[in-house]
Amino acid sequence: MILEILKSNNAKILRHDEKVTVALVPNDKLRTTAELLFKAGCYYATGAGVDERLLGVGFSMYHIFNCEAEGRYIIIKAVASNLKIPSITPIISGANWAEREVMDMLGIFFDEHPEPVRLILPDDWPEGVYPLRKDFRYNERPPRVEFEQKREKKPGVIEVPVGPYHPALHEPEMFELYVKGEEIVGAVYRGFHIHRGMEKLAEGRMTINQIPFLAERICGICGYTHNCAYVQAIEDAAKIEVPERALYIRTILLELERIHSHMLWLGVAFHLLGFESGFMHTWRIRETFMDLAELLTGNRKTYGMNLIGGVRRNIDENKKKGLSEILDKTKKEIREIFDNATQMRELINRMEGIGVLSKKKGREIGVVGPTARGSDIDTDVRRDHPYAAYGDLEFKVPIYKDGDVLSRFLVRYEEVLESIWLIEQALDQLPPGDILNEEYELPEHTICVGATEAPRGEDVHFAIMGEGNKVYRWHPRAPTYNNLPAVPIMLKGEKLADAPIIIASIDPCFSCTDHIVIVDGEKVYRCSLDNYLGGL
Amino acid sequence: MGRFKLITKAISIGRVTEKYPFVPLEVPEGFRGKPVIDPEKCIGCTACSNACPPQALQVYDDLERGVRVVHLFIGRCIFCARCQDVCPTEAIKLTKEFELATLSDEDLHQIVELQMVRCEECGKPFDTFRHLLYTAKELQPWEREMMFLCPECKAKKVSEKLIFGKGGGYV
Fold this sequence. Notes:
heterodimer, A: alpha+beta, 3 domains, 5-stranded mixed beta sheet, 15 strands, B: alpha+beta, 2 domains, 4-stranded antiparallel beta sheet
């Protein structure tokens, strides 16, 4: 069906195999193609601009769609003529940030974009300097320019800032809440404070086997899934056969990471709700998982386990035995704590019916992960696009219908138990054999994509292979990038006292989202979600 | 009701925090801590500096003094152990040491200097003695006569032999 849509729009198919379809779409047909794909049930995952002048093409934009029904990623490419491409934001609102990011970083302009203002670059960045173009060196620093800060006051409402550091998650973000009495009447997210310039660094300086370690540092909690997503993208491009044992080891580590991430969030949620003893117990149990990770990989976080073609360390019999013993014990403890906690009415009352996100709104924004599953949206990359060993294992995807904070809480709790069950299965079925396949040849200029289900949702890594052991372009997208626009909707109409738990309920990871931006630390740029979400 | 169960749970578990700074902390086998280069084993092959993702390990030649410097700066290190993986002589190893806070910047640098060989023809230092000996094992007998020539001089010599045909092993 997808092929028919693409062919009926004069698209040139550049790649079509089991997992990925890449098509070059003429500019005048771009919007109709995007619309047809969206209506056929493909959701907008992310977009990436590429400076392809060195390949003799010019500037191009890649829109990546996730087709859950076919288990396939569809990448549609459009080449800019005279630096202009038609915008698809009027049809798919999820493309707003992606297109504005490309506008900032590459200087491609989108015709009829509803909000063509800067998203990522700070106000003091000079006009006409585009950091992701190939003629911009990775260590270049342009001089800053003077600017006027524009701030509008809304009459009759009081502005309450939450941030620039999140009160509980200790990460840089800034929510401006507009309150009347105790009720929140509007919310604006101001983000992109952190500059790490990872994409530029990877393209400019690093080799293909060094980038996994950089990708792992996108996030301090769920770094390993980013690492896996990148490695899978390259393995997809080079058609590398990864040994089965390596795939199982990856699965075990991915699930271990999911457990510790969810336990961390559940603890933080208790802390925000004022249930401190629950917080202490949760984090005490989480510590055993951190020790397990240390045992298996040599470090509590930043496992550093992946290379292209496999993993670096084996799980021997001793470790296997220790792992299953500890899992048995902690599974009981987790049940004890959480079954107790869910019986406390005063705790449940603070989450029930709070911060509701409807299924329809969620679909429009394109939320992913537990945020989506709490709103009755049935999506899980592990099931829809099987990677690592998930195809061989059996697991349930918990779905809750209410869309409130409690649903998201329960989704995460059930996922912890599912993850333990997945690790047990993977340990049982761990196949013998090699763990690293180093005999492969890297293709040139192949377009590839890798996706994993991070604890917070879908991670998508888009890459174009370069020459001589390098990548030409690498664009990672973290799940919070898709989930953040939902927060102002959840906040509207709620009590101010509930704001911290609502903001935390998407399990936001601001550093993940901002990894690619270039922003001055002192001056923050205001990205108004007001217009984006149809004026809250 | 749940609250009372949690209280009994807390009492039965007791204290979980560790007396860490006063009692040493045990780390498991295979822990990735501070990397240390064994200067006796290092041959200066640059494999580690090629693999190092954050460029914490850099290898450069000091041509005036005729030494190759292997410079490890732990301030940049991400403890990924790629250097340990690629080292052909197991000269660099990650130890279990993790208490790396220091008041002096010097504690974070380890510098290993290796004597280099000068080219027989042009006199330019081109490789370390140890690396040359390490690779000599792999050389064919007819290649050994040009062992002490730098790559440029070697290339020149080979083409001379090809042109004037004095019966080199390459022809």
